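re the bet — no i am not wrong, look at it urself. input seq straight from the record:
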Amino acid sequence: MKNFSDTNKNLVAIIGAIVAAAGTFLPFVNASLLGMSQSVQLIGTGFGWIVLIGALLGFFAGMANWGWLMLLSGAVDFAVVLIGYSRVINSDYGDEFTNMFVNSVTQRGVGFYVILVGSLLLILAFFFRNKREY
């Protein structure tokens, strides 16, 4: 029988997976220019589907108490978010002026931070799970 602390550790992973999955539907990158604003959700890209699959695996890992899968799904989600953001910001648009202009009008959206928090919760759930209790 599981004790209460094991249940809480799994709950951290489950909440992290749900938070990461929800973050894919929130604005990932915002761009503002002359009073007009545009945002992009991560789910509209291939990166969003990778994060969503990683969050789903993290959810099942939390339910089944599979620690390594919690760590792997959290690390994959974390890496994909950072790589996805850098690809959006550092895309080559042809000339240096256009690249500088795009970098100046874009900023991270709330989805970026929500996915990071969810992936960190998955990673922390693994380390909480494997911490020896004295």
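see?? Strands lie at 27-33, 36-41, 106-108. told u. also The chain has one domain: 4-129. so pay up
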